[in-house]
Amino acid sequence: MEKELDSGPYDCQGKVGQITDNGITVDGHVQYAYDRLVRAVFILGPSSSGKTTLCNALVEDLGLDRSRYVTEVARNVMKTHGFTRHDTDTFEMQHTIMMAQLRAEEAVLKRYSENIDFPLDILSDRSAIDPAVYAGTSTAAGAAERQKRLLNDPAFRAVLPLYQKSTFVQDWFEDDGVRSLEDPRVYNTHLFAVMEELGIPFVCIGEERKDIRDRVDFVRELLEQQRA
């Protein structure tokens, strides 16, 4: 049964320990950004849920520099590393995507760490949570263990304070029967469970907001509430 999402926010839980080197350059991984309010928006949802459409509309509406927009990370990883959809159930693919997403986010935040004149520091059409969610939805043996390994990765644990202060929006989904390869209900159930476990607040765009203008206004209202 699909879990019904309320509007939150949810209480943040847990503390993050000292980051260690896990094989990539993670020294000081986005920790520099925690001493000020980072205005970050992450759009969530399974494939074909309209994340990119909403993000592109937000970029235009907010007049956001596209260099602040993190997109197509998973697609680029699959292309550069030679992964295919047959590798989706492997730890290697999901971990590589997670690390690439974290590096992309960190690059944007470092580039603009001293500039507070924009409505957003960073906008992304996924987050480092997505690979863990996909790992958990796998029907292959060992799915729960792969998800646990991803969620306990030192670089991922280091970014949790940022995520817990960010705006996560789960976009409304309409199954067109064409592009989506996973059951959105299964994805959402795992997504909501992981977000609550990590103490990350999130909101959901309801199906009554099918128009892109309504969805953009919804996110803008969230940002205005944060600034109030």
Characterization of the model:
- The chain has a 5-stranded parallel β-sheet with strand order 2-3-1-4-5, with helices on both faces.
- Helix 2 crosses helix 3 (91-111).
- It has helices at 51-62, 73-81, 91-111, 129-137, 143-151, 154-165, 184-198, 212-227, and strands at residues 40-44, 69-70, 122-124, 167-170, 203-204.
- With 228 residues, it is of the alpha/beta class.
- It has a single domain (31-227), classed as P-loop containing nucleotide triphosphate hydrolases (Rossmann fold, 3-Layer(aba) Sandwich), CATH 3.40.50.
Helix/strand order, N-terminal first: EHEHHEHHHEHEH
| Range of strand content | 5-15%
Assign the CATH architecture: 3-Layer(aba) Sandwich
Output the structural class.
alpha/beta
Distance between the termini: 37 Å
- CATH topology name, in short, is Rossmann fold
Shape: globular
Summarize this entry quickly:
With 228 residues, this protein is an alpha/beta fold. The chain contains 8 helices and 5 strands, in the order βαβααβαααβαβα. Helix 3 (91-111) runs antiparallel to helix 4, helix 4 runs antiparallel to helix 5 (143-151) and helix 4 packs across helix 7 (184-198).
